[in-house]
Amino acid sequence: MRRFFILLALLLPIYGFSASFAVAAQPVTDAPNTQPVRVLVTTNSLGFLVAEIAASLIENKKLELKVLAAPGRDVHYLDARPSFIAAARRADLLIETGAGVEEGWLPVVVSSAANPAINEGRLGRLRVAEHLTLRQSITVTGPHAGHVHAAGNPHFNIDPLRMALASRVIARRLGDFFPDQRAELIKASFLLEKRLKDAAKKMAAQLIEGQRFIAYHEDVDYLEEWLPVINIGYLEPIPGLPPTSKHLRSLVEQHKGDALDREPKPRVIFAAFNPSQGADFLKNRLGWTTHPVPIEPEQPNWESYLKLMIIWTDAFDKKY
């Protein structure tokens, strides 16, 4: 083919055409790809990390970010919606929490999308939890065993310290798609890591130490990792099973002394999408306060995640 165009360039002037026409007619095979890298994340927490690390790439339309799960939904129990499948079909990189939290719906999305780029083991698939040290899940040991998180508690988004480490993981993978910007992406992740750690340290210092709480599910367990607070139980008798009257009565019997002789009193903290009846049961019988809290930021950005940290902190009593 190349010989043909060279010959054409030599012959065209003889017939009154310019050689520049022949060059212009040659097909362009090495044109740069102007399409953005499409990054698909399962939650706003993951989207926040991508948006902060790759802000300049998003601004310059080199990276397109899309989040699947709405912030007020329990990411355990989503449906494989057609819009999810369509987004996965176009994705270059799929970033998920991992550790089983999306296993009820994401495999269906990926298989239905039929996009080899985001299949298991490909560069376009990242399970962040596999690169972190997670809390041991209560689902595999003790009286709460039953639900399945054998790889560990997947709700690390409630721990800004682990989110800081997750930012490194995401920056390295984005660097595989943008090798020329790899150093800038890693630098951005280090800056974000510092902001997260500084904010966590400042908020932890505001709280009265040793405050106790009962959780609905093990998601808010991660508050223990960065705040000076202690989890003393769960409204769920086993993970995934709604509170039962028997279990709630046993909690009242077990903790009724705590309502009288220790201050601050324990409290009940639970995700806002969980039903409040169990928490209200303890409130009415023990006088504890109840705190439904969001689990995900409203938007995938720093301001929303910082607001989320403040909400979690405000569920406890402060020194001043």
CATH topology heading of the largest domain? Rossmann fold
Number of domains: 2
Q: Which residues sit in consecutive blocks of at least 5 with pLDDT less than 50?
A: 1-31
The main sheet comes to: 4 strands, parallel
Overall shape: it is globular
How many E-type strands? 8
Taking all residues together, what is the mean pLDDT?
88
Distance between the termini: 79 Å
User: Helix coverage percent of residues?
Assistant: 40-55%
By CATH's scheme, which homologous superfamily of the largest domain applies?
A: Nitrogenase molybdenum iron protein domain
Layout of secondary structure:
Elements: H1 2-11, H2 19-25, E1 37-41, H3 44-53, H4 55-59, E2 63-67, H5 82-90, E3 93-96, H6 106-113, E4 125-127, H7 160-177, H8 182-206, E5 211-215, E6 229-234, H9 245-255, H10 258-261, E7 267-271, H11 277-286, E8 289-293, H12 302-314
Parallel strand pairs: 1-2, 1-3, 3-4, 5-6, 5-7, 7-8
Outline the structure in words.
This protein has 320 residues and is of the alpha/beta class. Strands 2-1-3-4 form a four-stranded parallel beta sheet, sandwiched between helices. A four-stranded parallel beta sheet has the order 6-5-7-8. α8 packs parallel to α12. The N terminus is likely disordered.
Features:
320 residues, alpha/beta, Rossmann fold, 2 domains, 4-stranded parallel beta sheet, 12 helices, 8 strands, 41% helix, disordered N terminus
Short description, anyone?
The protein has helices at residues 2-11, 19-25, 44-53, 55-59, 82-90, 106-113, 160-177, 182-206, 245-255, 258-261, 277-286, 302-314; strands at residues 37-41, 63-67, 93-96, 125-127, 211-215, 229-234, 267-271, 289-293. With 320 residues, it is of the alpha/beta class.
